[in-house]
């Protein structure tokens, strides 16, 4: 069936799979200290244009969020996030399971507002009983957000500034970072992102890998004993090569960005299709997740012909749905979709 | 200085202290299995009119919330609470520290709305990806609420019903329960409360004890190994007698209710004082916490003459403050306050 | 360099890699509910000869131990393990991180003794203050053990019996299960193992996969909400197909056992090599991990020519080392090693 | 019945109770920032002869151990303790519940041996895979130990030295500290103890208080946000005055030491009684816990006439029991016991 379900419903990009094949016969030490991981890390460091950056590979997004946040927070600290943030809404309480409160603020099409973050922090420290409350110890955002929207450079800079003012790290979940970096509307380059946050990750799972997220500590600021923290979370792969080889491929010959550009081209065409047919968008997403409001009859009709995600009810008669393009999306699929709309 | 700071700023009620004195020479086993705890529990069971009820004494409110909630939830479950609920706002993340998310819903003058709880539960189970989310495993409310308001019997019944529909327990934080039970507007008796919830506690610390909260499992439903869970939280006193003796006093000769009635009489007079002087109330509280909106000049003036709590900013020029009556509050103190208003 | 470092230093077995390649173009839903996972699970269920068995795929061993143990234990329970057990010694406190004590008993060449487990349980419940102690809630063993040794069917039956007596589950870590099942000395078949324990896993990472462990609940006894527990631990892969495809290959045409037999043939030859040259074994291991005591001069000499693991000091002048065979080990490599000994 | 069950089976020392009575009418702020807590802390600081010392009052021993250890350790760290240590054996896994492994070493009549601690630390850092293990982050000892024995100044100095070498704090559980400080054999004064460790507590519960332990950070080294950590553990009493008043009494007119001296005098006489009657001691305890080996007939006879604790089986025919003196123990009780032996 025609599918716009997600960007993780297909296998590996051929170049990624080929790298696994080509390196398969090598004998390599375990636990991520192999040459493939080193080579991949090196390429990522160069792409970030931060010689002091450190890179650590993990297998999936929720795992990465849990490990990175736990590694940064003291027990009395929580993490500020948009209410729509993945860690607040769709990770089964992984952050709380590791002992930390998600301090949810209102979202604006998926984004945190820097002024609201500052107001929250000001109010916190102005409250006479703040030592009976959860200290805000980190700010978590996603680029692109869970609604496909982007932080502009100015917005990111503003968050960076407020985090500096309060001495708390800014963490960017980049599970779909490729689609931010290659979006037509985007004005934040990878080196700029690296400069403006304290830790972020470059998502592989949703960008042509079988699994894998590359955590970047841009300022050489990997937390002490991070390796042991990863092990303690059950997050260390014995064959770290699986992650190293894939990211080595993704950062060879610009593959990560080539995938990004293709997916974004397909996404913009898909968006245009819906727009031209007069569909209503839930919000204006500039990346590869498009949220459309369907009346429930249309919903039922389309569900029988094409796979996509039912996001949430809109009202009694309408539903928000999500269409996503991925590295395998083709013009033929878009044409087939167009015929159904 | 004249003080309406809180109901825990004075020592023990004389009858409570006397009981500690009278029982001091007894040799009693430790860890809560002594005769004083048994006698106190027996009196509470009778006051609740539930022969099958079980009682367990703990030292403080946050501790009780943490232990009771952790004892009921499985790891994948969280607890629904009003955003203003004590566990969400003022317990330094104690619930999250034990691994569970507080699922905060909007509050209505401190209260959860049963229909909104039902809507939340319906939406949860209607969401196709609910197994990636935190399961709602309990409903937590406070009677009276953190804003001094009360659940009516109808409201409590409605919450009871929705909890039954979804097979999740209803937990009532009664840190100030005496002031609910004796409030003029109250229509929920102690036996009715016991019948309508799954676990609740009768606060002692704020009702004339030095410390202590009596957890009641009205239906003989104490969680398995509750004693060990308490120990594991560091919440078991070696000299459990300290709690038993105090609650034995509080439930002798109706003391708990006598304290409640005195405090409420003082509270209603205090409320009248503010009303007569034309002060604006933040909300209409029927119990011993009164929330008043002061302009900031008045705030500054009063702060130099009487102790009370600055609650939160109201707007640029006004502040919400809290005045509380306790078992030591006298008519003379109210007269002195009246002279200042 | 010649390497007997471990069984996870090479890539995927060709048939495993081929399956990834062959299935790469399929569009499949995420999170482990795809056809490849279903097919693999089905094959494993049949191999276990337990129609009611359930299978769940996870990425790595420490992760699996943490998730499975946490899913079974109540907060007041710990897990009995040999002091040498992986969860006690080499998982960076992953079990304690999830809140549970490892109740370590002495090991006998890596094995727990059923009589000692029973004595521990008897003493626990005979202790008047057991409710101040950690309840034993599970027994964890590894087959083969961390020292390469095996539980015989009689030993496994004895552990099964004591676990039944005390109503606690028996969990078998099978990270290297293939090498138990195909060891010449082994008398426990896969169906017998499945019948004698409550949950176990079939290790993939060390048996030709890139990653992956197949957790088996032989009696249809998967814990409630296991999927959410997995998600909460950050242990759920978006592309569950990665695990499904690999295990589908491993359980096609007997590959899991073919790998096992090859590795064990190499291991027995390696053991013979050391024996013939007069080397001293630390213990008599019947599987693919061989522990040899080297004098420190020989250690230094060999380390420059062949890769292996320094296990632990033996005495001032000797060291315990480990040699491991894997699916890539060849007769040529053994010949080369022989020339060095 | 005649009782040597424990030192926490009686109420408060009259001077402690009197202080509660005398201060009861004072209006004091909550949460431990009151004048009584300040006065008590000041007296303790002076008794420790460390002007920079900080004092924090908590309610009970397990709570104190859990909070103090959690406040010092990073997530990847565990705490070294004797296998017989209270945190390892009798706190229901409170340390593991807060995420940390207890790294149990053999005990010597309840004591850790400094050389064995050093050997453990050396072996840890010499192990090539130590980053897959739990980092030793603290050393926990009890003075007196759980077997009533004492660390000499030389032994304490040796532990202090090894902790300094490895930059980990030394924590002393002083639940019965009074009985160490006043034991005839003791050579470690309170100021010396304060100088030789990083954090310790002065037990009140077992020394005449109703509850309460005074945590001392001798070097002004209270962990950041300790107050919030306490709150998060549910360990903060609203009426902190309950702890302040009691410790103010205990450190007025030398009461803590007067209680200690009386209890120790009774203990030494009790020890002499058993010795003169030819009873066998399990070990030679110099403090108020005396461990005697009874044949099981004698055990049965004595149990019907006097209360004491059955500690553990000794062999088939004998049992280890514990007799404890407390602040209420009298010569008349010893005479009555003598008549029974």
Tell me what the structure shows.
The structure is a homotetramer of 341-residue chains. Chain A contains 14 helices and 13 strands. In chain A, the strands form 3 sheets. Chain A has a 7-stranded mixed beta sheet with strand order 2-8-7-6-5-3-4, sandwiched between helices. The first copy, chain A, has a 4-stranded antiparallel beta sheet with strand order 9-10-13-12. The first copy, chain A, is of the alpha/beta class. The longest helix of chain A is centred in the last third of the chain and has 22 residues, at 255-276. The mean pLDDT of chain A is 97. The radius of gyration of chain A is 20 Å and the shape is globular. Chain A has 2 domains: 2-7 and 255-340, Alpha-Beta Complex (Aspartate Aminotransferase, domain 1), CATH 3.90.1150.10; 14-250, 3-Layer(aba) Sandwich (Aspartate Aminotransferase, domain 2).
| Number of distinct helices of chain A | 14
Give, in spatial order, the strands making up the sheet with the most strands of chain A.
Answer: 2-8-7-6-5-3-4
Helix % of chain A is 40-55%
How is the CATH topology of the largest domain in chain A named?
A: Aspartate Aminotransferase, domain 2
CATH level 1 class label of the largest domain in chain A:
Alpha Beta
Instruction: Tell me the span between the first and last alpha carbons of chain A.
Output: 15 Å
The biggest beta sheet of chain A reads:
7 strands, mixed
Structural class of chain A: alpha/beta
Mean pLDDT of chain A: 97
């Amino acid at each position: 069936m025609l599918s716009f379900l997600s960007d993780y419903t297909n296998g590996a990009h051929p170049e990624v799979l080929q790298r696994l094949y080509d390196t398969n016969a090598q004998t390599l030490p375990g636990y991520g200290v192999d040459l493939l991981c080193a080579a991949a890390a090196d390429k990522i460091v160069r792409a970030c244009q931060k010689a002091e950056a450190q890179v650590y590979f993990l297998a999936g997004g929720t795992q990465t969020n849990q490990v990175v946040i736990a590694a940064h927070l003291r027990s009395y600290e929580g993490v500020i996030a948009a209410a729509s943030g993945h860690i607040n809404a769709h990770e089964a309480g992984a952050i709380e399971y590791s002992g930390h409160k998600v301090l949810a603020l209102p979202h604006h099409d998926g984004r945190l507002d820097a002024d609201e973050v500052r107001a929250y922090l000001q109010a916190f420290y102005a409250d006479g009983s703040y030592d009976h409350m959860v200290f805000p110890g980190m700010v978590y955002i996603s680029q692109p957000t869970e609604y496909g929207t982007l932080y502009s450079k100015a917005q990111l800079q503003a968050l960076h500034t407020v985090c500096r003012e309060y001495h708390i790290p800014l963490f960017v979940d980049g599970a779909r970072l490729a689609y931010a970096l290659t979006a037509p509307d985007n004005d934040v380059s990878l080196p700029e992102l690296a400069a403006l946050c304290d830790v972020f990750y470059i998502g592989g799972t949703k960008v042509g890998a079988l699994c894998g997220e590359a955590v970047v500590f841009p300022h050489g600021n990997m937390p002490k004993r991070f390796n042991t923290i990863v092990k303690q979370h059950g997050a260390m792969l014995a064959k770290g090569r699986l992650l190293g080889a894939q990211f080595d491929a993704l950062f060879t010959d610009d593959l990560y960005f080539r995938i990004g550009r293709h997916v974004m081209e397909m996404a913009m065409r898909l968006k245009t299709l819906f727009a031209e047919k007069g569909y209503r968008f839930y919000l204006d997403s500039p990346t590869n997740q498009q949220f459309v409001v369907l009346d429930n009859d249309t919903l039922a009709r389309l569900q029988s012909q094409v796979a996509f995600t039912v996001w949430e009810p809109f009202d009694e008669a309408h539903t928000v749905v999500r269409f996503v393009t991925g590295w395998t999306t083709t013009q033929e699929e878009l044409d087939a979709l167009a015929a159904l709309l």
